[in-house]
Amino acid sequence: MGQELVTRLLAYSKIEEEHARKLVELGESLNHPVLRTIFLSIARDSEKHGMIYKALSELVSNPQPFITEKEFENIRKVISNHIETEAKMLKVVDELLDEAEDSRVKLLLAAIRDDEVKHHALLASIRDKLASLETLTEQKLWDMVWKESPWHGTPGG
User: Fold this and answer.
1) For residues 125-137, b (16+ Cβ closer than 10 Å) or e, as one string?
2) Which of 144, 145, 122, 141 is nearest to 69 (CA)?
3) pTM over 0.90
4) Spatial separation of the C-alpha atoms in residues 11 and 129, rounded to whole Å
5) What is the pLDDT of residue 106?
């Protein structure tokens, strides 16, 4: 299934890219600022999905490089900061949702809220699971070199 999966993932990437292109064209053709923004925003999501499908094809077909401890620390720092900011923005959006009376405003604020919740969960998972598993720490390196060695670092045992 390996090559078949890669082929499918790349095909899905192209489909998403084409949808994104059409949505950008539609959005840019509109004068209505909210509809223009919504279509351009959805186009970005389709572009994002296309990039993720491509990345997945790479993930399943090629060995991935390790993340250094320095890169992991940067990932952790930036993601943690972003999670804190999103938590504040969730409060803001909840307040706006409570105050809003216009159903159109409520619809779009609810969409923003849903995105923020999804982003929060995804970023926390990346920080806590994916990135940490892919990080090559000094301890992992020593374990790879010596843990299963019959000599445990000494010549001849």
Assistant:
1) eebeeebeeebee
2) 141
3) no
4) 28
5) 97
